[in-house]
Amino acid sequence: MTKENIFNKEEFADLLERAKGDRSINRFAEETGVSAAHISRFLRSLIEAPPTPETISKFSSKAYNDVSYRDLMAAAGHIAITKENGSIGLDELEDDDSDEVDNRRPYVPTRNASIDPISPNERRMEMENLEKRLFQVILSYLYEAPFQWNMQKPDSRMRFPDMIVDIDDEKYSRWLLEFKAYPEPNRGFGLPPQHIYGRLAMIEFSPKDKFTIVVNSERAFQYFLRRPPVSIRANIYVMLVDIEKGRVLTEEQLSSYEI
């Protein structure tokens, strides 16, 4: 760890106090999922080791007073922000569980990547909210569809796909949908099609099944069109939705079930 990347306990304590705001320690602990005793020790600068990026993500996701994920990461010594140009460098991030009771692997950004002021937890919640809005658009679309339909009851053991609908259509009898939301139109493409196609390859489809990947980004839509699956026997489509206007814009077929 370089001199510029040392854990500044006092600065971190000040930022954490600002992030807590007028809430009690117990209330802040309840909202973030970090123990009150642990928060108290950080506020009193009693912990020598910096919190993991995952713990910082929990703090920033519930922070008051505009305290950002990047501010806390810098104070913890995980990143260095140069005074000359405000650029960010990353120090080695060790998988230190000393401040985290959860044994899941902490979030570790790639070396020399830019650090988003929005934490991974906040980004994940944003995407979940967008995917709920995609679901509402599809639901409205179904209510106006020219065929009868019935949504299957969700199975808590199954995380893929997001939605299954039995439909009375001339071509298909079952419609499976997976929602992939993208917070900003110009952000990088986070999930490669190969990841979804790999999961699809493990599902047995019939010629009467239709699988649709629903996206809210023109860039993601075009990305899927340029990279269709080549060896999956399934009727796979990609659909572009305008969340703000609440409507389906277009749908294109990527592959077909060849008997």
From TrEMBL:
Residues 91-100 have a biased composition (Acidic residues). This is Uncharacterized protein. Residues 90-118 are annotated as: Disordered. It comes from Alkalicella caledoniensis.
